[in-house]
Amino acid sequence: MKVYLDVIWALNLLFDAFLLYLTAIILKRQVKIWRLALGGAIGSLLIILSITPFHAAAGHPVGKLIFSIMMVLAAFGYKGFRFFIKSLMTFYVTTFLLGGTLTGVHYFIQFDMDLASNVAMNHIKGFGDPISWLFVLLGFPLAWHFSKRNIEQFEMTKIQYESLADVEVKFMEMDFSVKGLIDSGNQLYDPISKMPVMILSIANCLDHMPSEIKRIAENPDSVLTGDGNFSPQLENRMRIIPCKVVGQEHQLIIAFQPDNIKIATNESTFIAEKGLVSFTAQELSADGSFQCIIHPKMLAGMAKTEQGVKVS
């Protein structure tokens, strides 16, 4: 039986370094390459120790924990106990995530192992198993890429979730209760009154909207071109707001002054005393997670905060 110890050691060094690199990505930390290489080299020493008289200690959970601690210290250093524990726990989560992915894929695509052992793996066991190492060699980069992409998606979902709020808008005897996205890039203002503008999608209730609102939401240019008559009550609330979009230097949208805007976040409830609402017939979110875009100024100086009362 041949044991390609040098190949196994090199693969372990590479994999450990990649695990530390993915840990650094999750923690949003800048780590030098030599530190990652040093951490990977420390982790790969377990392979060397496995063929020495110290193999029992190297395979013991305490021994593995000690090596994990040394790997994390080599890669990220020590800047406090909480800093270190967070690094160590994230490293373990990353390791379990990648290891679980590889294990799941292996059992998902596994075939008759008895037949494979008799035909293709006769007299080949242990460290020198080329089938297992070929699977790891090909599967690890795919699992690493999959894990990295999904972690980024989880972060984006978390950021978006923390930016969502419950919005209630009352406008001409119509009540809207929707989810809103607090968009820090929203710079829509009425140039005259300086009121911030909220974009509200009515795509889900378009058939139940008054014909005037429906027509404006579907075709805002009808107001600008003078097509159609609108009630005096609606015209008194109407504002024409200039805005800029990608590919167009100047564009005009139609906004209205509502009776009330109430925005509830996880911390407080805001009553926007000054604000405008622009209705649109388009979906604002591809997955339907929000139906309006909130101007951040509605939660700042121009808004009155109504502290929620906790009931225990």
UniProtKB/TrEMBL annotation:
Protein name: Sigma-E processing peptidase SpoIIGA
Catalytic residues (positions): D183
Membrane-traversing stretches: 6-27, 34-56, 62-78, 90-110, 130-147
Keyword flag Nucleotide-binding: no
GO MF entry, a single one: aspartic-type endopeptidase activity
One Gene Ontology term from the biological process aspect of the record: asexual sporulation
Native source species: Mesobacillus selenatarsenatis
Pfam family of the protein (one): Peptidase_U4
Annotated signal peptide: none
Keyword entries, A-Z: Membrane, Transmembrane, Transmembrane helix
